[in-house]
Structures are given as C-alpha cells and as structure tokens.
Write a structure and sequence with these properties.
alpha+beta; five-stranded mixed sheet; two-stranded antiparallel ribbon; about 15% strand; globular; about 40% helix
Amino acid sequence: MRRARVLGGIVALAAGVAAGLLLGRASVGETTTTETVTEPRTVIETETESASDAAGLPEPVARTHAALLAAAEAGDYEGLRPLLAAGFEYTFGSPVAGGPIAYWRRLESTGARPLQALAAILRLPYTLSRGVYVWPFAYDVPSPDELTGHERGLLETLGGADRLFVPGTGYLGWRAGIEPDGDWVFFVAGD
C-alpha cells in the first residue's frame, strides 16, 4: 500500500513538473506551434462505357436497344417478337411465311447465326442516319477506306471490314435500326 502511495506521488510530481515546464515556456515568450501539412490528393473517377451502353440515346431507343440485346444474348427469338414494329424489314426479298422469326430460324439451319449477329452489332457504336439509330456505326460509311484503324478493329467482331463492304455500295453486313420513338424497324443483311 505504501508503494502505491509513493508511486502515485511520483506520477503526480512528474505531471506537475511537465505542466510547469509547459507553462514556464509560455511565460517566457516561447510558443509551441503545430505545423499542419496538407497534401492535395486528386481522385479521378472514370466511367467506361462499352459500345453496348445506351449513351446519348433517347430513352425509348435505349429501352428497345437493351431489350433487343438481352434477347439476342439469351438466344431468345420469342423475346424479340413483342419488339417487332409494324412494317418491320428483315429481308430484301418477299416476306417469309411466319415472318421475321421464322426467317431467322431458317437462316440458322443454313449455318447463319442471326441472334449472334444482332448481339454483336448492338455491342458496337451506333450512327444516326436519316433520323434512325442504326447499329453498327459502319452503316453509313461508303467505303472501308474511310474507316480508322480503331473502327476496322471494332468490325473484326463481325468478320472484318473487307468482308462487310461491297465496292461502290458500302456496308452490307447485318444492321439494325430503331426509330426515335423506340420502334425496332429493321434487322437485315445484304442488299
């Protein structure tokens, strides 16, 4: 018990001495300053938009684009049916019995992959042509010679620019168009 009192006294004495020293310094004109160093830190937040994002699209077009892409990626022909607008263009020939879905299924039996093509073009940037939002961006490019190296690279997912263009005609690969009101109006290939 005596040791605890002695120890307590020593602690109290040390605290008093420390306080006295601090007060003594302040009384002699010395000041204690704390230096705060602020280092600026820049945080850069970026958002990368893939080509399939609906950046810059009117809301009805963005909704249709998203629904088309989801159905195409899922391989869901029936998911496309409610998106077909009146007068929808799917072939340059005569209409096919059963309509667009029957036509695309028939193409699959020959080795074509319309839903894979639809998903692939919808992941690429679009172009606005005569008021219609069209995928891919190459739709209104008259010649592969007018493509940048980057654009040629983008078209590699569709088989390459040289295969998709016909001299004097322009881009003839798969393409899809959506009106500003969200109506899906065409998905065709060829001329």
